[in-house]
């Protein structure tokens, strides 16, 4: 545990089937009269947005948009276009319905809507926002990123080819609406990749150097929920209870890593993300057991606790064996998910060339998440880990 | 009461210390290898110090509006003083809004192990 830690999670979390078309009263309470609805083109076509917009209008609140011009990896230009659209139409609140990219776009656009300026020049970094933002309601349509409860956003600077991070307490959304019905038609492979992202958040938050008693108490229940619900949520598309549990787990893991940060698995996944078009969750899927093995010498005790949460051989008492079994169980899940929805098991399967592993190792060491990893992220050792994952 | 009584004093003490750091065989070499251009914006008293590690001798300039920094940090001069004494954890200071960072945070996180010996050096420098 660090010498000093603090815990604050100001986002109001609401959970319920059908809640995404029954939250207008919350907008009134926040003083919103004109709400900008942000989503993406696929969700726009899916028919999910109309009932949301209708339910808000029925309560006398103006709906601006929807603004759906949000790419898979949101960019500075998309954020600016979104903010300009909101300002032009006098939006006094934002509703973001979508995956991580939509939620991050809404957070970043909210900075410009509330305070103006140049996103990259004035706000990229940490604690740069001068004051509170307009109310933001985040409605995730995947169970993964946890962005609905975090103080971070990542936006692509397409000109420079770099991802800009924004970290500020004011970025916490006002409300997170968790509606399992929104995951009704999610493809199994996306459910698996995003769910694995949440799983990785929970495990890395738990073993992070910044973990604290509060984040641990969120990370472990997230793992417990994922253990129960992950496979049914992927293999039984109509199982909304399992999908709801995964949604809740992703949010719990989101709050946990918002406080505790993540580690080497994310560092490697971010570095691979620059060279592969694979989903971030898919990269975590490949890399998680390898990252855990990398951390094994320093995280034995925590992995042993994790094994108990995962219910691996409850009679077993030896910590070392338990810790190794936790990785073994995770590998079994990997194989099952690979079989069910063909998620790739190796980096070579997602377009990563072996020649690039050295570069990826270097970039992983430079990634900000490495700083919070319980074991020092050392280039030569990371390269060996990547070789094994390749 | 602020530790530094004037911008001049702050310039003399912290500026002087930065000159020692960039000239140090171990720390200076690593800082120059980073090629980072970093600007520290201090309040109470007000002063900005830019360390340009992209140039061979890593020149240090004051209230420099010409050099474009890659990373800018904002903090009270007292926080800076405590940081160099080794009494302030950077990550915590950011979380508590005692420090703000504009630009890529990993670039400065990466330098933390490099400057670790500087905390002792600062104490000796002040003595």
In short:
The complex is a heterodimer of chains A (390) and B (127). Chain A has 390 residues and is α/β, with parallel strands linked by helices. Chain A contains 14 helices and nine strands.
Q: What does this 3D model show about the protein?
A:
Chain A is α/β, with parallel strands linked by helices. Chain A has two domains: 12-182, Rossmann fold (3-Layer(aba) Sandwich); 186-389, Dehydroquinate synthase-like - alpha domain (Dehydroquinate synthase-like, alpha domain, Up-down Bundle). Chain A contains 14 helices and nine strands. Chain A has a six-stranded parallel beta sheet with strand order 1-9-6-4-2-3, sandwiched between helices. A three-stranded mixed beta sheet of chain A has the order 5-8-7. In chain A, strand 7 (152-157) and strand 8 (162-167) form a beta hairpin. In chain A, helix 10 (264-273) packs antiparallel against helix 11 (280-309). Chain B has helices spanning 7-23, 25-34, 77-84, 90-95, 105-109, 112-115, 118-126; strands spanning 37-43, 47-52, 60-62, 71-76, 99-102. Chain B has one domain (7-121): 2-Layer Sandwich (Nonspecific Lipid-transfer Protein, Chain A). In chain B, 35% of the residues are buried. With 127 residues, chain B is α+β, with helices and mostly antiparallel strands. The A-B interface holds A 2-6, 122-128, 162, 164-165, 167, 169, 210, 366-368, 370-371 and B 71-72, 89, 91-92, 94-97, 99-106, 109-110, 112. Strand 5 (125-126) of chain A pairs antiparallel with strand 5 (99-102) of chain B.
């Amino acid at each position: 545990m660090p010498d000093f830690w603090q815990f604050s999670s100001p986002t109001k979390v609401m959970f319920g089937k059908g809640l995404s078309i029954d939250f207008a009263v919350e907008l009134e309470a926040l003083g919103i009269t004109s709400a900008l609805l942000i989503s993406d083109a696929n969700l726009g076509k899916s028919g999910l947005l109309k009932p949301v917009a209708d339910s808000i209008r029925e309560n006398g609140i103006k709906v601006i948009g929807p603004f759906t011009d949000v790419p898979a990896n949101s960019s500075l230009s998309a954020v600016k276009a979104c903010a300009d659209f909101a300002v032009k139409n006098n939006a006094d609140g934002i509703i973001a319905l979508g995956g991580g990219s939509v939620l991050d776009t809404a957070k970043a656009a909210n900075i410009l809507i509330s305070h103006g300026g140049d996103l990259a020049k004035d706000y990229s970094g940490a604690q740069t926002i001068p004051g509170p933002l307009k109310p933001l309601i985040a409605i995730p349509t995947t169970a993964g990123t946890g962005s609905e409860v975090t103080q971070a956003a990542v936006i692509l600077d397409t000109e420079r080819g770099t991802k800009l991070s924004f970290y500020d307490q004011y970025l916490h959304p006002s409300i997170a609406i968790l509606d399992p019905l929104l995951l009704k038609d999610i493809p199994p492979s996306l459910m698996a990749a995003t769910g694995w992202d949440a799983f990785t958040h929970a495990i890395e938050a738990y073993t992070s150097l910044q973990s604290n008693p509060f984040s641990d108490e969120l990370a472990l229940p997230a793992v417990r929920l994922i253990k129960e619900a992950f496979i049914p949520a992927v293999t039984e598309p109509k199982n909304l209870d399992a999908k709801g549990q995964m949604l809740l787990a992703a949010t719990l893991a989101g709050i946990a890593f918002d406080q505790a940060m993540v580690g080497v698995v994310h560092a490697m996944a971010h570095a691979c993300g620059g060279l592969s078009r694979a989903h971030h969750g898919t990269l975590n899927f490949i890399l998680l057991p390898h990252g855990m093995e990398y951390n094994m010498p320093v995280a034995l005790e925590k992995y042993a606790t994790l094994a108990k949460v995962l219910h691996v051989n409850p009679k077993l008492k030896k910590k070392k064996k338990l810790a190794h079994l936790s990785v073994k169980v995770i590998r079994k899940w990997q194989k099952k998910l690979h079989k069910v929805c063909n998620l790739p098991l190796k980096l070579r399967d997602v377009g990563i060339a072996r020649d690039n592993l050295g570069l990826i190792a270097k970039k992983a060491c430079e990634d900000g998440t490495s700083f919070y990893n319980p074991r020092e992220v050392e280039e030569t050792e990371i390269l060996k880990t990547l070789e094994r994952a390749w | 009461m602020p530790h530094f009584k004037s911008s001049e004093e702050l310039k003399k003490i912290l500026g002087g210390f930065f000159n020692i750091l960039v000239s140090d065989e171990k720390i200076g070499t690593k800082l120059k290898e980073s090629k980072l251009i970093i600007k520290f914006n201090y309040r109470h008293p007000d002063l900005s110090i830019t360390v340009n590690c992209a140039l061979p001798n890593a020149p240090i300039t004051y209230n420099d509006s010409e050099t474009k920094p890659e990373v800018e940090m904002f903090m009270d001069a007292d926080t800076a003083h405590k940081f160099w004494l080794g009494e302030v954890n950077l990550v915590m200071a950011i979380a508590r809004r005692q420090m703000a960072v504009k630009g890529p945070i990993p670039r400065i996180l990466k330098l933390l192990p490099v400057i670790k010996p500087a905390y002792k050096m600062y104490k000796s420098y002040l003595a």
